[in-house]
Write a structure and sequence with these properties.
single chain, 2,3-Dihydroxybiphenyl 1,2-Dioxygenase, domain 1, 8 strands, globular, transcription regulation, Regulatory LuxR family protein
Length: 214
Amino acid sequence: MSSKRGRPRHPDVLTPAEWRVVDAVRHGMSNRQIATRREISVDAVKFHVANALLKLGVERRADLRTWRGVPADSALRTLRQGVPAMTSATVQLGAIGQISQPVRDITTAVEWYGKVLGLPHLYTFGDLAFFDCGGTRLFLSATEESQANAEPSVLYFRVDDIQTAYDDLRARGVEFENAPHLIHKHESGVEEWMAFFPDPDGHLLAIMAQVPPA
C-alpha cells in the first residue's frame, strides 16, 4: 500500500509560520524587517508570503493587510463565537491603553525610563521595550536617529471587541491601514490585537484589545 509523502496538511488555513509572517505584513513590516524580527532569511519570508497568497486566493501583498483572518486556535476566535451581530449602538473607544515613543537607542532609553524616571519595566523584545505608566503602557521602539524626533507618538485606544470596533469605525468612515491582526501572544496566553488608522491630519492612531485565553 502506497503512502503519501511530505508533511500532513495543517488543520488551519495557514501554518503557524505563515500566520506569523502574514500578521507582520498586516502590521506594515517589510520583508527585511520581518526577517530580522523573526530571525529568518528574507527568502523564507518571501516563501511564506507566496504560500499565503496562494492559499488565500489573493494576488497582491497589499491584499494581506486588509484580510480579516483569525487563527483557528486564537482566543479571539473563541471570543467572537459568542458575540451577537452588531446592533445600531455604536462602539465606544475605551481609555488609552498604550502610547508609543520612538527612541535612538533602546538600551539607553530602558535605563533612563526605568532608573531615572522610575517607571516599572514590563518587558523587552529586541529593540522594543514596554513600561507601565499608571495603567497605560509606554511602548519604546528603536528607530533611525534621523527619524527619532520626527516620528510622532501613536495613541492606542482600548476596545472590548476589536472586530466589532473595526466594523463600526469603518461604517463611520474611518479608513484603516490594516485589518485587526495579532501583535503578540504572551506566555500567559493573552493575545494582543491591533488595527491602525490615520486621523484627518495623518497622525496614526490604533485600536487595541487584550484577549485572554478561553
